[in-house]
Amino acid sequence: MRRWNGWGDDTINATVPQEAVNFLRTLIGEPAPRPSAELAEVLAKIERESPSRLAGHPALHPAITLDAEARLRVSVGQSMYDWVAMRYGQPRRVTDGVAYPEHSGQVRELMDWAKANDVILLICGGATSVVGHLAPPQSDKPCLTLSMQRMRRLLELDERSQLARFEAGVVGPDMEAQLRVKGYMLGHLPQSFEYASLGGFIATRSSGQQSLRYGRIDGMFAGGKVETPTGTLEIKPLPAGAGGPDFREIVLGSEGRIGVITEAIMRVSRLPEQEKFIAIFFPSWDAGMNAMRELAQLRIQLSMQRLSNPRETDIMLRMAGHASQIAWLERYLAFRGCARGDQGGKTMMMIGLTGTRAQVAANWKVAKGVIRQFGGVSTGTLMGKKWAEKRFLGVYARNTLWDQGVAVDTMETCVEWNKTTAMMNAIEQAGTEALAKFGEKCLCYTHLSHVYGSGSSVYTTFVLRVAPTAEQMTERWDAIKQAANRAIAEHAGTVSHQHGVGRDHASYLPAEKGARAIEALKATLQHFDPTGLMANDNLTGPAK
Protein backbone atom coordinates (compact mmCIF):
# COMPACT_ATOMS: atom_id res chain seq x y z
CA MET A 1 0.00 0.00 0.00
CA ARG A 2 1.31 3.43 -0.85
CA ARG A 3 2.00 5.79 2.03
CA TRP A 4 -0.55 8.56 2.41
CA ASN A 5 1.80 10.93 4.25
CA GLY A 6 5.25 10.22 2.86
CA TRP A 7 7.13 8.54 0.06
CA GLY A 8 6.52 5.15 -1.45
CA ASP A 9 5.39 1.68 -0.44
CA ASP A 10 4.59 1.57 3.27
CA THR A 11 6.30 -1.84 3.60
CA ILE A 12 9.67 -0.37 2.56
CA ASN A 13 11.72 1.41 5.18
CA ALA A 14 15.17 2.93 4.78
CA THR A 15 17.84 2.50 7.43
CA VAL A 16 19.91 5.56 8.31
CA PRO A 17 23.25 4.63 9.97
CA GLN A 18 23.70 5.95 13.49
CA GLU A 19 26.94 7.66 12.45
CA ALA A 20 24.95 9.66 9.90
CA VAL A 21 22.33 10.65 12.48
CA ASN A 22 25.06 11.73 14.91
CA PHE A 23 26.73 13.73 12.14
CA LEU A 24 23.46 15.52 11.36
CA ARG A 25 23.09 16.43 15.03
CA THR A 26 26.43 18.25 14.93
CA LEU A 27 25.29 20.25 11.92
CA ILE A 28 21.66 21.15 12.64
CA GLY A 29 21.26 20.55 16.37
CA GLU A 30 19.46 17.90 18.37
CA PRO A 31 16.28 16.85 16.49
CA ALA A 32 12.99 16.69 18.38
CA PRO A 33 10.77 14.00 16.85
CA ARG A 34 7.05 14.63 17.04
CA PRO A 35 4.20 12.15 16.47
CA SER A 36 2.60 12.25 13.04
CA ALA A 37 -1.14 12.58 12.58
CA GLU A 38 -3.18 9.45 11.89
CA LEU A 39 -5.04 9.00 8.61
CA ALA A 40 -8.40 8.67 10.37
CA GLU A 41 -7.80 12.00 12.09
CA VAL A 42 -6.99 13.73 8.80
CA LEU A 43 -10.00 12.23 6.99
CA ALA A 44 -12.32 13.34 9.79
CA LYS A 45 -10.91 16.84 9.52
CA ILE A 46 -11.54 16.85 5.76
CA GLU A 47 -15.13 15.71 6.21
CA ARG A 48 -15.61 18.37 8.84
CA GLU A 49 -13.79 21.35 7.30
CA SER A 50 -13.64 20.58 3.58
CA PRO A 51 -16.78 18.65 2.67
CA SER A 52 -17.31 17.92 -1.00
CA ARG A 53 -19.13 20.69 -2.82
CA LEU A 54 -20.39 18.07 -5.25
CA ALA A 55 -22.38 16.29 -2.55
CA GLY A 56 -26.05 16.47 -3.42
CA HIS A 57 -25.34 17.56 -6.99
CA PRO A 58 -28.55 16.84 -8.94
CA ALA A 59 -26.67 15.45 -11.95
CA LEU A 60 -23.57 13.91 -10.37
CA HIS A 61 -21.76 11.74 -12.89
CA PRO A 62 -21.87 8.06 -11.80
CA ALA A 63 -18.09 7.67 -12.32
CA ILE A 64 -17.31 10.29 -9.65
CA THR A 65 -16.50 9.28 -6.06
CA LEU A 66 -16.72 11.71 -3.15
CA ASP A 67 -14.76 9.46 -0.77
CA ALA A 68 -12.55 11.57 1.51
CA GLU A 69 -9.43 9.38 1.23
CA ALA A 70 -9.65 9.27 -2.56
CA ARG A 71 -9.99 13.06 -2.61
CA LEU A 72 -7.01 13.47 -0.29
CA ARG A 73 -4.64 11.19 -2.21
CA VAL A 74 -5.03 13.09 -5.50
CA SER A 75 -4.71 16.52 -3.86
CA VAL A 76 -1.27 16.26 -2.27
CA GLY A 77 2.16 15.59 -3.70
CA GLN A 78 5.60 15.32 -2.14
CA SER A 79 6.62 18.92 -1.46
CA MET A 80 7.53 20.09 2.02
CA TYR A 81 4.21 21.93 2.14
CA ASP A 82 2.42 18.64 1.42
CA TRP A 83 4.41 16.80 4.06
CA VAL A 84 3.67 19.44 6.67
CA ALA A 85 -0.04 19.29 5.89
CA MET A 86 -0.14 15.51 6.26
CA ARG A 87 2.32 14.93 9.09
CA TYR A 88 0.82 17.63 11.30
CA GLY A 89 -2.73 16.67 10.38
CA GLN A 90 -3.63 20.01 8.81
CA PRO A 91 -4.65 19.23 5.23
CA ARG A 92 -5.29 22.11 2.90
CA ARG A 93 -8.41 22.16 0.77
CA VAL A 94 -8.78 18.97 -1.23
CA THR A 95 -10.59 18.32 -4.46
CA ASP A 96 -14.35 17.78 -4.33
CA GLY A 97 -14.53 14.57 -6.32
CA VAL A 98 -12.38 11.99 -8.12
CA ALA A 99 -12.98 10.00 -11.29
CA TYR A 100 -10.84 7.24 -12.79
CA PRO A 101 -11.29 7.24 -16.58
CA GLU A 102 -10.26 4.07 -18.42
CA HIS A 103 -9.92 5.45 -21.96
CA SER A 104 -9.90 8.70 -23.94
CA GLY A 105 -13.65 8.56 -24.52
CA GLN A 106 -14.33 8.64 -20.78
CA VAL A 107 -11.93 11.58 -20.37
CA ARG A 108 -13.92 13.51 -22.97
CA GLU A 109 -17.22 12.53 -21.35
CA LEU A 110 -16.07 13.71 -17.89
CA MET A 111 -14.60 16.87 -19.35
CA ASP A 112 -17.89 17.69 -21.04
CA TRP A 113 -19.74 16.98 -17.78
CA ALA A 114 -17.45 19.32 -15.84
CA LYS A 115 -17.83 22.02 -18.48
CA ALA A 116 -21.63 21.74 -18.45
CA ASN A 117 -21.77 21.92 -14.66
CA ASP A 118 -19.24 24.74 -14.13
CA VAL A 119 -16.73 22.45 -12.35
CA ILE A 120 -12.97 22.99 -12.51
CA LEU A 121 -11.14 19.97 -13.92
CA LEU A 122 -7.83 18.89 -12.40
CA ILE A 123 -5.47 16.05 -13.37
CA CYS A 124 -3.47 13.64 -11.21
CA GLY A 125 -0.93 11.19 -12.62
CA GLY A 126 1.28 9.66 -9.93
CA ALA A 127 0.91 12.37 -7.24
CA THR A 128 4.68 12.90 -7.05
CA SER A 129 4.73 16.67 -7.66
CA VAL A 130 7.07 18.70 -5.46
CA VAL A 131 5.93 22.16 -6.63
CA GLY A 132 2.22 22.22 -5.80
CA HIS A 133 0.63 20.94 -9.00
CA LEU A 134 -2.21 19.00 -7.40
CA ALA A 135 -3.99 21.10 -4.78
CA PRO A 136 -7.27 22.63 -6.01
CA PRO A 137 -7.24 26.39 -6.59
CA GLN A 138 -8.97 28.87 -4.32
CA SER A 139 -12.28 29.14 -6.15
CA ASP A 140 -16.00 29.26 -5.51
CA LYS A 141 -16.37 26.50 -8.09
CA PRO A 142 -16.17 22.82 -7.09
CA CYS A 143 -13.24 20.80 -8.45
CA LEU A 144 -13.12 17.36 -10.02
CA THR A 145 -9.81 15.50 -10.33
CA LEU A 146 -9.24 12.93 -13.04
CA SER A 147 -6.89 10.25 -11.71
CA MET A 148 -5.20 8.73 -14.75
CA GLN A 149 -3.94 5.60 -13.00
CA ARG A 150 -6.22 3.19 -14.91
CA MET A 151 -5.01 4.35 -18.32
CA ARG A 152 -1.69 2.51 -18.50
CA ARG A 153 -1.70 0.24 -21.56
CA LEU A 154 0.86 -0.05 -24.33
CA LEU A 155 -1.41 0.46 -27.34
CA GLU A 156 1.07 0.00 -30.18
CA LEU A 157 4.77 -0.63 -30.78
CA ASP A 158 6.28 0.20 -34.16
CA GLU A 159 9.60 -1.66 -33.94
CA ARG A 160 10.86 -0.43 -37.31
CA SER A 161 10.39 3.23 -36.31
CA GLN A 162 11.02 2.56 -32.60
CA LEU A 163 7.85 4.37 -31.57
CA ALA A 164 5.60 3.21 -28.74
CA ARG A 165 2.08 4.56 -28.16
CA PHE A 166 0.98 4.48 -24.53
CA GLU A 167 -2.00 5.60 -22.52
CA ALA A 168 -0.62 8.54 -20.57
CA GLY A 169 -1.50 7.26 -17.08
CA VAL A 170 1.14 4.51 -17.23
CA VAL A 171 3.72 4.77 -14.45
CA GLY A 172 7.45 4.22 -14.91
CA PRO A 173 7.83 0.55 -13.87
CA ASP A 174 4.73 -0.58 -15.78
CA MET A 175 5.85 1.25 -18.90
CA GLU A 176 9.33 -0.23 -18.84
CA ALA A 177 7.99 -3.73 -18.10
CA GLN A 178 5.66 -3.63 -21.10
CA LEU A 179 8.52 -2.51 -23.33
CA ARG A 180 11.14 -4.84 -21.87
CA VAL A 181 9.29 -8.03 -22.84
CA LYS A 182 9.56 -6.82 -26.44
CA GLY A 183 13.24 -5.93 -26.14
CA TYR A 184 12.86 -2.16 -25.74
CA MET A 185 12.96 0.55 -23.10
CA LEU A 186 12.15 4.24 -22.79
CA GLY A 187 14.98 4.97 -20.36
CA HIS A 188 13.31 7.83 -18.52
CA LEU A 189 14.42 7.25 -14.94
CA PRO A 190 13.86 10.18 -12.57
CA GLN A 191 13.93 9.53 -8.83
CA SER A 192 10.10 9.55 -8.91
CA PHE A 193 10.20 6.66 -11.42
CA GLU A 194 8.28 4.21 -9.19
CA TYR A 195 5.08 6.29 -9.13
CA ALA A 196 5.23 9.15 -11.63
CA SER A 197 3.14 8.83 -14.80
CA LEU A 198 4.07 9.31 -18.44
CA GLY A 199 1.58 12.16 -18.77
CA GLY A 200 3.13 13.79 -15.72
CA PHE A 201 6.62 13.46 -17.20
CA ILE A 202 5.45 15.25 -20.35
CA ALA A 203 3.35 17.90 -18.60
CA THR A 204 6.29 18.93 -16.38
CA ARG A 205 9.16 18.55 -18.90
CA SER A 206 10.81 15.94 -16.72
CA SER A 207 14.42 14.76 -16.98
CA GLY A 208 15.64 11.26 -16.08
CA GLN A 209 18.89 10.21 -14.45
CA GLN A 210 20.33 8.87 -17.73
CA SER A 211 19.23 11.69 -19.99
CA LEU A 212 22.70 11.91 -21.56
CA ARG A 213 21.92 8.71 -23.47
CA TYR A 214 18.14 8.68 -23.80
CA GLY A 215 17.40 12.39 -23.70
CA ARG A 216 15.01 14.44 -21.62
CA ILE A 217 11.29 13.72 -21.93
CA ASP A 218 10.97 16.54 -24.48
CA GLY A 219 13.30 14.59 -26.78
CA MET A 220 11.43 11.33 -26.24
CA PHE A 221 7.93 12.74 -26.78
CA ALA A 222 7.13 12.33 -30.48
CA GLY A 223 3.39 13.04 -30.52
CA GLY A 224 0.07 11.95 -29.13
CA LYS A 225 -3.40 13.03 -28.19
CA VAL A 226 -4.67 15.72 -25.82
CA GLU A 227 -8.33 16.22 -24.93
CA THR A 228 -8.68 20.00 -24.60
CA PRO A 229 -11.79 21.91 -23.49
CA THR A 230 -12.38 22.98 -27.11
CA GLY A 231 -11.66 19.66 -28.81
CA THR A 232 -9.05 16.98 -29.43
CA LEU A 233 -5.48 17.99 -30.27
CA GLU A 234 -3.54 15.30 -32.14
CA ILE A 235 0.17 15.60 -32.88
CA LYS A 236 1.76 13.34 -35.48
CA PRO A 237 5.03 11.61 -34.54
CA LEU A 238 7.12 13.04 -37.38
CA PRO A 239 10.89 12.48 -37.12
CA ALA A 240 11.48 16.18 -37.85
CA GLY A 241 9.87 19.04 -39.69
CA ALA A 242 10.07 22.69 -40.66
CA GLY A 243 6.33 23.24 -40.86
CA GLY A 244 6.16 26.19 -38.51
CA PRO A 245 6.20 25.99 -34.69
CA ASP A 246 6.33 22.52 -33.14
CA PHE A 247 3.05 21.96 -31.29
CA ARG A 248 4.68 19.34 -29.09
CA GLU A 249 6.17 22.33 -27.29
CA ILE A 250 2.71 23.52 -26.27
CA VAL A 251 1.96 20.16 -24.66
CA LEU A 252 5.38 19.80 -23.02
CA GLY A 253 5.34 21.71 -19.75
CA SER A 254 1.62 22.50 -20.04
CA GLU A 255 0.99 21.32 -16.45
CA GLY A 256 -2.67 20.51 -16.90
CA ARG A 257 -3.62 23.91 -18.28
CA ILE A 258 -4.58 23.13 -21.89
CA GLY A 259 -6.12 19.70 -21.53
CA VAL A 260 -5.64 16.07 -20.55
CA ILE A 261 -2.83 14.12 -22.21
CA THR A 262 -4.51 10.79 -22.93
CA GLU A 263 -2.04 9.12 -25.32
CA ALA A 264 1.67 9.67 -25.88
CA ILE A 265 3.82 8.38 -28.71
CA MET A 266 7.35 7.92 -27.41
CA ARG A 267 10.72 7.33 -29.04
CA VAL A 268 12.07 4.13 -27.49
CA SER A 269 15.42 2.33 -27.61
CA ARG A 270 16.58 -1.26 -27.79
CA LEU A 271 17.69 -2.73 -24.50
CA PRO A 272 21.44 -2.15 -24.06
CA GLU A 273 23.88 -5.03 -24.15
CA GLN A 274 25.90 -3.67 -21.24
CA GLU A 275 25.68 -0.98 -18.59
CA LYS A 276 28.22 0.18 -16.03
CA PHE A 277 28.25 2.86 -13.36
CA ILE A 278 31.64 4.02 -12.11
CA ALA A 279 32.43 6.22 -9.09
CA ILE A 280 35.28 8.68 -9.58
CA PHE A 281 36.78 11.06 -7.03
CA PHE A 282 38.44 14.40 -7.75
CA PRO A 283 40.67 16.39 -5.39
CA SER A 284 38.47 19.50 -5.50
CA TRP A 285 35.17 20.92 -6.70
CA ASP A 286 36.80 22.87 -9.51
CA ALA A 287 38.64 19.79 -10.78
CA GLY A 288 35.46 17.72 -10.80
CA MET A 289 33.34 20.42 -12.42
CA ASN A 290 35.92 21.13 -15.13
CA ALA A 291 36.19 17.42 -15.90
CA MET A 292 32.41 17.21 -16.11
CA ARG A 293 32.24 20.17 -18.48
CA GLU A 294 35.02 18.75 -20.67
CA LEU A 295 33.30 15.36 -20.90
CA ALA A 296 30.05 17.06 -21.93
CA GLN A 297 31.61 19.40 -24.47
CA LEU A 298 33.63 16.61 -26.09
CA ARG A 299 30.29 14.81 -26.54
CA ILE A 300 31.65 11.58 -25.11
CA GLN A 301 28.75 9.15 -25.19
CA LEU A 302 28.12 8.62 -21.49
CA SER A 303 24.62 7.81 -20.29
CA MET A 304 24.93 9.78 -17.04
CA GLN A 305 27.13 12.27 -15.22
CA ARG A 306 26.50 13.34 -11.65
CA LEU A 307 28.88 15.39 -9.51
CA SER A 308 28.45 15.89 -5.76
CA ASN A 309 30.04 18.87 -4.06
CA PRO A 310 32.41 18.20 -1.12
CA ARG A 311 29.67 18.46 1.53
CA GLU A 312 27.34 16.06 -0.32
CA THR A 313 30.26 13.70 -1.01
CA ASP A 314 31.06 13.56 2.70
CA ILE A 315 27.44 13.01 3.67
CA MET A 316 26.93 10.27 1.06
CA LEU A 317 29.92 8.34 2.40
CA ARG A 318 28.72 8.72 5.99
CA MET A 319 25.19 7.62 5.04
CA ALA A 320 26.49 4.51 3.27
CA GLY A 321 27.26 2.57 6.44
CA HIS A 322 30.00 -0.10 6.28
CA ALA A 323 32.34 2.10 8.34
CA SER A 324 35.41 -0.12 7.96
CA GLN A 325 35.10 -0.23 4.16
CA ILE A 326 34.58 3.52 3.95
CA ALA A 327 37.62 4.07 6.20
CA TRP A 328 39.71 1.95 3.83
CA LEU A 329 38.37 3.95 0.87
CA GLU A 330 39.22 7.23 2.62
CA ARG A 331 42.80 6.10 3.21
CA TYR A 332 43.18 5.02 -0.41
CA LEU A 333 41.75 8.30 -1.75
CA ALA A 334 43.94 10.37 0.57
CA PHE A 335 46.97 8.46 -0.72
CA ARG A 336 45.83 9.31 -4.29
CA GLY A 337 45.43 13.00 -3.47
CA CYS A 338 41.67 13.13 -2.73
CA ALA A 339 41.47 13.86 0.98
CA ARG A 340 38.30 13.90 3.05
CA GLY A 341 36.91 17.34 3.70
CA ASP A 342 33.91 19.61 3.65
CA GLN A 343 33.70 22.64 1.38
CA GLY A 344 37.36 22.35 0.37
CA GLY A 345 37.63 18.58 0.05
CA LYS A 346 37.15 15.92 -2.57
CA THR A 347 34.15 15.53 -4.85
CA MET A 348 32.55 12.37 -6.18
CA MET A 349 31.36 11.90 -9.74
CA MET A 350 29.18 9.02 -10.89
CA ILE A 351 29.19 8.24 -14.60
CA GLY A 352 27.13 5.78 -16.61
CA LEU A 353 28.31 3.81 -19.64
CA THR A 354 25.55 2.16 -21.64
CA GLY A 355 25.33 0.41 -25.02
CA THR A 356 27.02 -2.48 -26.77
CA ARG A 357 30.11 -3.93 -25.12
CA ALA A 358 32.25 -2.30 -27.79
CA GLN A 359 30.63 1.10 -27.22
CA VAL A 360 31.05 0.87 -23.44
CA ALA A 361 34.72 -0.06 -23.74
CA ALA A 362 35.46 2.66 -26.31
CA ASN A 363 33.62 5.40 -24.41
CA TRP A 364 35.30 4.48 -21.12
CA LYS A 365 38.70 4.60 -22.76
CA VAL A 366 38.12 8.17 -23.98
CA ALA A 367 36.44 9.29 -20.73
CA LYS A 368 39.23 7.85 -18.62
CA GLY A 369 41.78 10.04 -20.38
CA VAL A 370 39.78 13.18 -19.57
CA ILE A 371 39.25 12.09 -15.97
CA ARG A 372 42.97 11.53 -15.42
CA GLN A 373 43.73 14.94 -16.94
CA PHE A 374 41.83 16.56 -14.04
CA GLY A 375 43.25 14.33 -11.31
CA GLY A 376 40.31 11.95 -11.10
CA VAL A 377 40.63 8.60 -9.31
CA SER A 378 38.36 5.77 -10.42
CA THR A 379 37.15 3.31 -7.78
CA GLY A 380 35.68 0.92 -10.34
CA THR A 381 32.14 -0.36 -10.50
CA LEU A 382 31.52 -1.53 -6.91
CA MET A 383 30.10 1.77 -5.66
CA GLY A 384 28.33 2.21 -9.00
CA LYS A 385 26.56 -1.13 -8.60
CA LYS A 386 25.44 -0.16 -5.10
CA TRP A 387 24.14 3.16 -6.40
CA ALA A 388 22.23 1.47 -9.25
CA GLU A 389 20.67 -1.06 -6.88
CA LYS A 390 19.41 1.69 -4.55
CA ARG A 391 18.81 4.50 -7.03
CA PHE A 392 15.07 4.62 -6.25
CA LEU A 393 15.37 3.69 -2.56
CA GLY A 394 17.35 6.70 -1.34
CA VAL A 395 14.26 8.89 -1.22
CA TYR A 396 12.75 6.51 1.36
CA ALA A 397 15.28 7.90 3.86
CA ARG A 398 13.15 11.03 3.88
CA ASN A 399 10.46 9.07 5.79
CA THR A 400 12.98 7.67 8.29
CA LEU A 401 14.62 11.02 8.93
CA TRP A 402 11.29 12.80 9.47
CA ASP A 403 10.36 10.19 12.09
CA GLN A 404 13.65 11.08 13.83
CA GLY A 405 12.87 14.81 13.71
CA VAL A 406 14.79 15.73 10.55
CA ALA A 407 13.11 17.27 7.49
CA VAL A 408 14.58 17.09 3.96
CA ASP A 409 13.58 18.77 0.70
CA THR A 410 15.25 19.97 -2.49
CA MET A 411 15.29 22.73 -5.11
CA GLU A 412 16.87 22.72 -8.56
CA THR A 413 17.75 24.97 -11.47
CA CYS A 414 20.02 25.11 -14.52
CA VAL A 415 22.58 27.70 -15.68
CA GLU A 416 25.55 28.16 -17.99
CA TRP A 417 28.93 26.78 -16.92
CA ASN A 418 30.33 30.22 -16.08
CA LYS A 419 27.55 30.68 -13.49
CA THR A 420 27.36 27.17 -12.04
CA THR A 421 29.57 27.54 -8.96
CA ALA A 422 28.20 30.99 -8.13
CA MET A 423 24.65 29.64 -8.41
CA MET A 424 25.43 26.70 -6.14
CA ASN A 425 26.99 28.96 -3.50
CA ALA A 426 24.15 31.49 -3.72
CA ILE A 427 21.43 28.88 -3.19
CA GLU A 428 23.21 27.25 -0.26
CA GLN A 429 23.92 30.64 1.33
CA ALA A 430 20.29 31.69 0.83
CA GLY A 431 19.03 28.58 2.62
CA THR A 432 21.49 28.93 5.48
CA GLU A 433 20.78 32.61 6.08
CA ALA A 434 17.01 32.22 5.77
CA LEU A 435 16.84 29.62 8.53
CA ALA A 436 19.37 31.43 10.73
CA LYS A 437 16.78 34.17 11.20
CA PHE A 438 14.74 31.64 13.21
CA GLY A 439 17.74 30.63 15.30
CA GLU A 440 17.98 27.37 13.38
CA LYS A 441 20.72 25.73 11.32
CA CYS A 442 20.17 24.54 7.77
CA LEU A 443 22.42 21.91 6.21
CA CYS A 444 22.76 22.55 2.48
CA TYR A 445 24.57 20.45 -0.12
CA THR A 446 24.45 20.25 -3.89
CA HIS A 447 25.10 18.06 -6.91
CA LEU A 448 25.07 18.60 -10.65
CA SER A 449 22.70 15.96 -11.97
CA HIS A 450 22.37 16.73 -15.70
CA VAL A 451 24.95 18.29 -17.98
CA TYR A 452 24.95 19.97 -21.36
CA GLY A 453 27.60 21.51 -23.57
CA SER A 454 26.70 24.99 -22.37
CA GLY A 455 25.81 24.36 -18.73
CA SER A 456 24.48 22.17 -15.97
CA SER A 457 21.60 21.63 -13.62
CA VAL A 458 22.19 22.59 -9.98
CA TYR A 459 20.30 20.43 -7.45
CA THR A 460 20.43 21.47 -3.80
CA THR A 461 19.22 19.58 -0.73
CA PHE A 462 18.14 21.34 2.48
CA VAL A 463 18.15 19.52 5.83
CA LEU A 464 16.58 21.10 8.92
CA ARG A 465 14.98 20.15 12.19
CA VAL A 466 11.26 19.39 12.28
CA ALA A 467 9.52 22.29 14.03
CA PRO A 468 7.11 21.89 16.96
CA THR A 469 4.09 23.20 15.00
CA ALA A 470 2.86 23.17 11.42
CA GLU A 471 2.84 26.96 11.34
CA GLN A 472 6.49 27.15 12.40
CA MET A 473 7.53 24.45 9.95
CA THR A 474 5.72 26.15 7.07
CA GLU A 475 7.18 29.54 7.96
CA ARG A 476 10.72 28.16 8.09
CA TRP A 477 10.47 26.22 4.84
CA ASP A 478 8.78 29.12 3.09
CA ALA A 479 11.67 31.38 4.11
CA ILE A 480 14.20 28.92 2.66
CA LYS A 481 12.26 28.37 -0.54
CA GLN A 482 11.64 32.03 -1.27
CA ALA A 483 15.25 32.96 -0.51
CA ALA A 484 16.52 30.20 -2.80
CA ASN A 485 14.09 31.21 -5.55
CA ARG A 486 15.30 34.80 -5.33
CA ALA A 487 18.90 33.62 -5.57
CA ILE A 488 18.02 31.58 -8.67
CA ALA A 489 16.31 34.56 -10.30
CA GLU A 490 19.15 36.93 -9.42
CA HIS A 491 21.69 34.57 -11.00
CA ALA A 492 19.56 34.12 -14.16
CA GLY A 493 18.74 30.45 -13.65
CA THR A 494 15.65 28.63 -14.82
CA VAL A 495 12.77 28.43 -12.36
CA SER A 496 12.92 24.64 -12.82
CA HIS A 497 15.17 22.22 -14.68
CA GLN A 498 13.10 19.08 -14.13
CA HIS A 499 10.24 19.51 -11.63
CA GLY A 500 8.01 21.97 -13.46
CA VAL A 501 6.58 25.25 -12.19
CA GLY A 502 3.33 24.35 -10.45
CA ARG A 503 1.88 27.09 -8.30
CA ASP A 504 4.80 27.15 -5.85
CA HIS A 505 7.15 28.69 -8.44
CA ALA A 506 4.63 30.50 -10.64
CA SER A 507 5.46 33.96 -9.29
CA TYR A 508 9.09 33.52 -10.40
CA LEU A 509 8.35 32.43 -13.97
CA PRO A 510 8.14 36.02 -15.35
CA ALA A 511 11.74 36.61 -14.24
CA GLU A 512 12.81 33.82 -16.57
CA LYS A 513 10.43 34.33 -19.49
CA GLY A 514 9.82 38.07 -19.58
CA ALA A 515 6.54 39.98 -19.82
CA ARG A 516 5.91 39.41 -23.53
CA ALA A 517 6.38 35.66 -23.20
CA ILE A 518 4.02 35.47 -20.22
CA GLU A 519 1.39 37.36 -22.24
CA ALA A 520 1.83 34.83 -25.07
CA LEU A 521 1.53 31.94 -22.60
CA LYS A 522 -1.71 33.31 -21.16
CA ALA A 523 -3.10 33.84 -24.65
CA THR A 524 -2.31 30.22 -25.52
CA LEU A 525 -4.07 28.95 -22.40
CA GLN A 526 -7.05 31.16 -23.23
CA HIS A 527 -7.18 29.71 -26.76
CA PHE A 528 -7.41 26.10 -25.57
CA ASP A 529 -9.46 26.82 -22.45
CA PRO A 530 -11.55 29.98 -22.96
CA THR A 531 -13.91 29.33 -20.03
CA GLY A 532 -11.26 28.46 -17.41
CA LEU A 533 -12.30 24.81 -17.12
CA MET A 534 -8.70 23.85 -16.29
CA ALA A 535 -7.68 26.99 -14.34
CA ASN A 536 -5.63 25.14 -11.73
CA ASP A 537 -3.20 28.03 -11.01
CA ASN A 538 -0.16 26.13 -12.35
CA LEU A 539 2.34 28.14 -14.42
CA THR A 540 0.63 31.53 -14.09
CA GLY A 541 -0.68 31.50 -10.53
CA PRO A 542 -4.21 32.55 -9.55
CA ALA A 543 -6.08 34.98 -11.77
CA LYS A 544 -5.87 38.57 -10.54
What does this 3D model show about the protein?
The structure is a single chain. The protein is an alpha+beta fold. It folds into four domains: 31-147, 2-Layer Sandwich (Uridine Diphospho-n-acetylenolpyruvylglucosamine Reductase, domain 2), CATH 3.30.43.10; 154-270, Uridine Diphospho-n-acetylenolpyruvylglucosamine Reductase, domain 3 (2-Layer Sandwich); 274-391, Alpha-Beta Plaits, CATH 3.30.70.3450; 395-508, 2-Layer Sandwich (GMP Synthetase, Chain A, domain 3), CATH 3.30.300. It has helices spanning 18-28, 39-49, 68-73, 80-87, 104-116, 172-180, 198-203, 211-214, 217-220, 248-251, 285-297, 310-319, 323-335, 357-373, 382-389, 397-403, 420-436, 470-490, 509-513, 515-528, and strands spanning 64-65, 97-99, 120-124, 143-147, 154-158, 163-167, 184-185, 221-228, 231-235, 260-267, 269-270, 274-282, 304-308, 347-355, 377-378, 406-416, 443-448, 455-465. The strands form four sheets. A seven-stranded antiparallel β-sheet has the order 15-12-14-13-17-18-16, with helices on both faces. It has a five-stranded antiparallel β-sheet with strand order 5-6-10-8-9.
